[in-house]
Amino acid sequence: MDNVTTSTITEVKTSKSRYSACLLFSANALSRAITAIGDEEFGRFGLCYSHAYMLCEVVEQPGITPSELSGTLCLTPSTITRLVEKLEQKRLVRRESEGKKTLIYPTAEGEAIQPEIAQAWDRVGARYSQVLGETSVCQLTKQVFSAAKALGGGI
Amino acid sequence: MDNVTTSTITEVKTSKSRYSACLLFSANALSRAITAIGDEEFGRFGLCYSHAYMLCEVVEQPGITPSELSGTLCLTPSTITRLVEKLEQKRLVRRESEGKKTLIYPTAEGEAIQPEIAQAWDRVGARYSQVLGETSVCQLTKQVFSAAKALGGGI
DNA sequence: AATTTTTGTTTGCACATACAAATATCATTC
DNA sequence: GAATGATATTTGTATGTGCAAACAAAAATT
């Protein structure tokens, strides 16, 4: 029960499958690394990156619905509900029921901190670029974006 | 349902801050999309992708330690402990204490299902390639990998 | 007009993951 | 050789996320 297994494994290591393993692993590692930077910058507002992103969308489109946000942020409706709850709890947005829909509006405070959040985005971008180089960031973003869109299909 | 969702990202936007937002968002979206495919394939074994990846490493290097796995999988030691617990619970690996170290070995069953798992990796890879194209997968993997390494620095 | 189907949102539960603190062992220094 | 510091691992706690089910409201079908 030794040699057979061993040779199989060695084959596996050099075959295509390692690439797939690597993409899965790398994509998650990249996600964690980038999220860490984002959360570090947005932590000052007591937000994580997805809260910040969501708040920007709400400020940009007052009255946006959870399902629209779900499409924009590529997160499931249930996750959106949870994020909105957090933001509501921090008095940055408020909800209004209208029929079966829910409309989400920024509060005055939510609009007020939006410029600061935009600055935080810039700092995040600067940190990426510092490490990866500005051109790489653009290239990487495009590739990752199109791959995500192709694979995820949008929720 | 109308075109209220103007800011839905169908295209990488041009302002700098949008790029950073986009990279953060895209990286996470890619991660989720890819993880979904991985988990779907490994779900037959009752595993998620990281369990499967870890099992491969353990089979390949019997007696590997949590900290080594932490480096390989780019996950924190505490996460490794939790994953090992799950794998141990499924009787696929076992732990041995040796001083302050913990050595992780595959069980017979763990070794037995390894070839099936390798096949699952191949199926995952096939699904990526089908959507993205084989050359794109390799290119994307390399880029994402080096970016993750540069940003994360390895844990 | 009443019932069924579809659509939008929210809850219950589960999981992977991380951080911080606790624990256990090894290595160094006095 | 005892005390201090360094390293390895595990627990407590918290969080973002998703799936499936529940719920609510609108639309469609009868």
Largest contact between chains = A-B, 67 and 65 residues
CATH class of chain A: Mainly Alpha
Shape of chain A: globular
- The whole-number mean of residue pLDDT values of chain A reads 81
DSSP summary: helix tally of chain A: 8
The main pleated sheet of chain A reads as: 2 strands, antiparallel
Oligomer: homodimer
Reading the helices and strands of chain A in chain order gives: HHHHHEEHHH
Helix content of chain A: over 70%
Strand order of the largest sheet of chain A: 1-2
CATH topology of chain A: Arc Repressor Mutant, subunit A
Strand content of chain A: 5-15%
Q: Total domains of chain A, how many?
A: 1
Number of strands of chain A: 2
How big is the Rg of chain A?
A: 20 Å
InterPro entries (chains A, B): ArsR-like_HTH (IPR011991), HTH_MarR-typ (IPR000835), MarR/SlyA-like (IPR039422), WH-like_DNA-bd_sf (IPR036388), WH_DNA-bd_sf (IPR036390)
Organism (chains A, B): Spirosoma profusum
Protein name (chains A, B): MarR family transcriptional regulator
GO molecular function (chains A, B): DNA-binding transcription factor activity
Summarize the helices and strands and which ones pair or pack.
Two copies of one chain form a homodimer.
Chain A: H1 3-14, H2 17-42, H3 49-60, H4 66-73, H5 77-89, E1 93-98, E2 101-106, H6 108-112, H7 114-132, H8 134-152
Antiparallel strand pairs in A: 1-2
The structure holds a DNA duplex (30 and 30 nucleotides).
